[in-house]
């Protein structure tokens, strides 16, 4: 009797363990399935966000491409020609020559006019008129007033020998001794190849050289028009 009961109890115990293990397996399988479902859901959300982000980037690229295309169609007068800068300005109180040089006499000289081959002595100021009017050469003098000082302190060059920029040579060749002339120098009458070392006059100070060099070599939309004040101090005989 007791043996039979123990056997029955053993069988029932084994059946309980089997049922329990089967129930635990199903629970674990359900939990694993839930984890996979959540993982797939998270992956789907990340993928959707990535796709939305890519769509936004693509839309941004297309908008920018449209802007670039539109800009390429628009005609910008400032970019025409061989040099960057604003369109040429004409000043009503200045006289314009055939070359495009504009000048105004602040004081008309009373002496002779220099001839080609003669050495002349001048004093001068220089400004980047097209870029905030920055000065790159100055002397302690009053505009339109008298100048004093030894000729060694001033700038010399021989007229007609292409030692200076075309604008300066043209301006001085039409001046009388003692005169003061203000000139507006367009880029094509200024420093060749945008380099003040290739033709005079050259700024005498480091800060002046930097200011002029910044304008001449800048590749942006900077107007390279210059302004000079010139006084013809002396004409030296050949």
Walkthrough of the structure:
The structure is a single chain. The chain has helices spanning 2-73, 166-173, 206-217, and strands at 95-96, 102-107, 119-128, 134-137, 155-158, 180-185, 226-236. Mean pLDDT is 74; it is low at 1-21, 67-85 and 141-152. Strands 1, 2, 3, 4, 5, 6 and 7 form a seven-stranded antiparallel β-sheet that branches. It is rod-shaped, with a radius of gyration of 43 Å. Strand 3 and strand 4 form a beta hairpin. It is an alpha+beta fold and 238 residues long.
Q: How far is the N terminus from the C terminus?
A: 151 Å
Describe the largest sheet.
Answer: 7 strands, antiparallel
Mean of pLDDT: 74
Structural class: alpha+beta
Give the topology string: H per helix, E per strand.
HEEEEEHEHE
Q: Poorly predicted ranges (pLDDT <50, ≥5 residues)?
A: 1-21, 67-85, 141-152
Radius of gyration: 43 Å
**Global morphology:** rod-shaped
Strand content: 15-25%
DSSP summary: helix tally: 3
Helix content: 25-40%
């Amino acid at each position: 009797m007791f043996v039979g009961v123990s056997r029955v109890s053993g069988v029932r115990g084994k059946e309980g363990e089997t049922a329990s293990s089967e129930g635990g397996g199903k629970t674990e399988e359900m939990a694993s399935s839930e984890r996979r479902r959540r993982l797939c859901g998270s992956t789907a959300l990340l993928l959707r966000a990535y796709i939305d982000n890519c769509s936004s980037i693509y839309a941004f690229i297309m908008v920018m491409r449209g802007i670039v295309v539109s800009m390429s169609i628009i005609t910008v007068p400032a970019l025409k020609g061989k040099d960057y800068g604003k369109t040429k300005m004409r000043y009503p109180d200045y006289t314009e020559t055939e070359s495009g040089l504009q000048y105004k006499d602040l004081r008309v000289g009373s002496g002779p006019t220099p001839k080609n081959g003669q050495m002349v002595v001048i004093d001068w100021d220089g400004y980047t008129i097209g870029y905030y009017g920055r000065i790159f050469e100055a002397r302690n003098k009053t505009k339109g007033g008298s100048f004093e000082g030894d000729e060694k302190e001033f700038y010399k060059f021989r007229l007609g020998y292409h030692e200076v920029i075309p604008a300066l040579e043209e301006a001085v060749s039409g001046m009388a001794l003692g005169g003061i002339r203000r000139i507006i120098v367009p880029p094509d009458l200024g420093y060749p190849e945008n380099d003040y070392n290739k033709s005079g006059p050259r700024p005498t100070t480091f800060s002046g050289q930097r200011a002029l060099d910044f304008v001449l070599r800048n590749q942006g939309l900077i107007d390279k028009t210059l302004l000079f004040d010139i006084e013809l101090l002396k004409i030296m005989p050949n």
